[in-house]
Amino acid sequence: MRPHAAAVATLDQQLRALERRPRRRPRIPAPVQFAVMVALVSVQLWIDYRQGLISDLSKLYFVHHLYTHPFPYAQVRIEYPVLTGVYMTAAAALTHGLHAYMVLSSLGLWALAIGCLTVLWSSSRRAAWAFALCPLLLVYSLLNWDLLAIFLMLLGWRAWQRERYSLSVVWLTLGTFAKLYPAFLLALCLVELARRARAGELRRAQLLRPLLSAAAVTLLLNGPFAALNLRNWLYFWSFNASRNEHADLLAWLGLLHGVGPGNTNLVLSAIVLGAIGAGALAVWRGAATQHVAALVFFAFMEMQKIYSPQYTLWLVAFALLAGWEVWALVVLSLLGLMSYANAAIHIEVVHHGRSMLSWYDARIGPAEQGVRLVTIAGVALGAAHRRAASAPRLGSALAPAAGS
Predict the structure, then answer these.
(1) DSSP string covering 282-299, please?
(2) Can you tell me whether residue 50 is helix, strand or coil?
(3) Domain ranges of the chain
(4) Residues with Cβ < 8 Å from 244, sequence gap 6 or more?
(5) CA distance 298 to 291
(6) Ramachandran bin of 254, using left for φ above 0, alpha for ψ from -120 to 50, beta for the remaining angles
(7) pTM for the model
(8) What is the pLDDT along the chain (404 residues), one digit of tens a residue?
(9) What does the alpha-carbon distance between residue 316 and residue 178 come to, in Å, rounded to a whole number?
(10) Which helix (H) or strand (E) holds 342?
(11) Bridge partners, 76 (sequence order)
(12) CB half-sphere exposure, 67, CA atoms < 13 A
């Protein structure tokens, strides 16, 4: 009986061990997860299309007389880089009337949003979920054409991870000429290439090909429009240089009071160039390129004299690339929603007379600006501190997902 009793005791111990073992959650199949994400993104864009209070798409349709089907830059000056200018004029040329233009433009931006999701999914499932659940898509996805440049930037970073450096530089250069912001990542990627070439990790040709690719894309994309009408092509630069909305940190602190646009540009540009130089030095010394690019971009947003609410979508995009933790994405999303609410209220206040607008701009505007600037700085400093202490949780800078 003793062997039998010992066997029973052993079996009883094994059963107890199985009871104590934590049960594994049933794993949702990858196609189902992706389908849910596509649905989440699609619903958010649909709500934005139906209920969105702010839209540059409809506003600039009339400002630039897109209903006359002008050829971009040759016949109309546009305050955006060439790819965005081509997008908006092409959508107008393919349609008749505002409704059809908005439908086609929105469908294109929906496709770009799904493209962003797909690229993130191929690199990090957690980052893809964070994008799909980001409430900023609900209010900013169709406000402007930012998703075009964000999609190109994500494509560039995925190609970079796969060590397809020339292709990466092509995508990032295209993104730069949709909206300037991917240039921060592009510049630091080139610094990393130079560092690796100097260390003997890359051949000289592997450094020259991306540089030549960037130059070729820049010339082929901009050359024809600059040749047709140089003044209109330069309008992106001249228009933004002349604007001074005092949205930067120095203006909020009162350090640039009474300073004209020219001197403001010099001071802020010097600070931004200093941040880029510091970031380049950090990458040269081996720091993670995507993390440094995010920090440099956040520093740029502190010194950005022009601010639009949808810029928080870019803050989230850079945070995703850098693999920052969920808390940073949540804080940035709340900031973006606050900025949207402020912009929507400001639009309503405009209709209630000059006296109320003056009060709002004097009391609420500076408070909202202060919250925004302090939050952006806080998130950047917190993310830098957390990264120094431990690895980020959101898929180590978009590391390849299992099974992808």
Answers:
(1) HHHTT--HHHHHHHHHHH
(2) helix
(3) 29-392
(4) 260, 261, 264, 305
(5) 11
(6) left
(7) 0.89
(8) 455 556 555 655 655 565 555 556 668 898 999 999 999 999 999 999 998 878 899 999 999 999 999 999 999 999 999 999 999 999 999 999 999 999 999 999 999 999 999 999 999 999 999 999 999 999 999 999 999 999 999 999 999 999 999 999 999 999 999 999 999 999 999 999 999 999 888 888 888 999 999 999 999 999 999 999 999 999 999 998 888 788 999 999 999 877 777 888 899 999 999 999 999 999 999 999 999 999 999 999 999 998 999 999 999 999 999 999 999 999 999 999 999 999 888 887 776 666 777 778 778 888 999 999 999 999 999 999 988 876 544 444 454 433 33
(9) 18
(10) helix 326-350
(11) 72
(12) 11
- State the Cα–Cα distance between residues 6 and 22, nearest whole angstrom: 26
Nearest Cα neighbor of 143 from 46, 44, 48 is 48
The phi, psi pair for 72, rounded to 5°, reads -60, 135
- Residue 188 CA neighbour count, 13 Å, CB half: 28
User: Which among 93, 105, 92, 118 has a CA at the least distance from the CA of 45?
Assistant: 105
Taking the C-alpha atoms of residue 26 and residue 163, their distance in angstroms, rounded to an integer, is 35
Burial of 9 (0-12, 13-18, 19+ CB in 10 A): exposed
Tokens matching residue 190:
């080139």
Half-sphere exposure of 55 (CA within 13 A, CB side): 22
Q: DSSP labels for 262-330?
A: HHHHHHHHHHHHHHHHHHHHHHHTT--HHHHHHHHHHHHHHS-SS--TTHHHHHHHHHHHHT--HHHHH
Asked if residues 312 and 319 have their Cβ atoms less than 8 Å apart, the reply is no
Tokens of 74: 């040759």
Angle between helices 326-350 and 311-322 (to 10 degrees): 170
Q: HSE of 269 in the Cβ direction (CA atoms, 13 Å)?
A: 8
- Tell me if residue 28 falls in helix, strand or coil: coil
Q: Tokens 């408070």 belong to which residue?
A: 367
Collect contacts of 87-90 with beta carbons under 8 A, ≥24 apart. Answer: 87/145, 87/148, 87/178, 88/57, 88/60, 88/61, 88/64, 88/145
Helix (H, G, I), strand (E, B) or coil at 159: helix
**Six-digit token string for 155:** 């494509």
